[in-house]
Amino acid sequence: xxxxxxxxGLAINRPxxxxxxxxxxxxxxxxxPLTVLAVAAAAYGLLGWPLAAAxxxxxxxxxxxxxxxxxxxxxxxxxxxxxxxxxxFTLTSEAGLNxxxxxxxxxxxxxxxxxxxxxxxxxxxxxxxxxRCAAGVVCGLLIGKGLGRLFFRAQKSxxxxxxxxxxFVALAATFLAYGLTELVHGYGFxxxxxxxxxxxxxxxxxxxxGVLHGFIEQIERLFHRLxxxxxxxxxxxxxxxxxHLAGRPRSAFCCCWSSGR
Length: 261
Fold this sequence. Notes:
This protein is an all-alpha fold. Helices cover 67% and strands 0% of the residues. The chain is built from 9 helices and no strands. α5 (121-153) packs antiparallel against α6 and α6 (169-183) crosses α7. The model is unreliable at 239-261 (pLDDT under 50).
């Protein structure tokens, strides 16, 4: 998942902006919460689940999985800022953020199950919703700016990693962003995606972005190959070992409808 988030952020060619990413904000601000509410209502009303369990199910099923949605996402990094198809761009950017933004809903379901009342709402709003989301964004921006400066503008050529064109640095950047953000109790998923977008923005047309993205794609294919035998054992009734296989619905229809294209 983390590797897919880094690859998605590096692949997006469109600069960050309120209007440029308007379709993404619509999916995150409207489609994601409405999907959570619809799934929770169905589990609570039709299946008779407890409210906490129903909310948890909605939080788990609502986000678009960046791994499973990779076939309909943007391609490799290119120089043109307008190269991304609207639907592919929206799915990629939304998938990069929605997993992290679904965490507050998961914590809300846990708090509801533990306390059973409403006394947890204030702490949840301040800590799980506001602080941890903000920490993920801020850490991602700071780490991305620092790495971008190191990759492209370091004074010493030995530290200017873009000249060495080592793709494995993308893996180190992924773990660095996630680990440091989790140390301050922020959402590491958000930080990884924001870090990738910030690195790309440092030198948007530099060829090193393609090197980093290419390495991430190779790692993803490796993991997919390792997961396929486990999936076959699962279908035959065997145990998949430590592999975790999960599918979540995509928001393609909502994306097309909201963007009007």
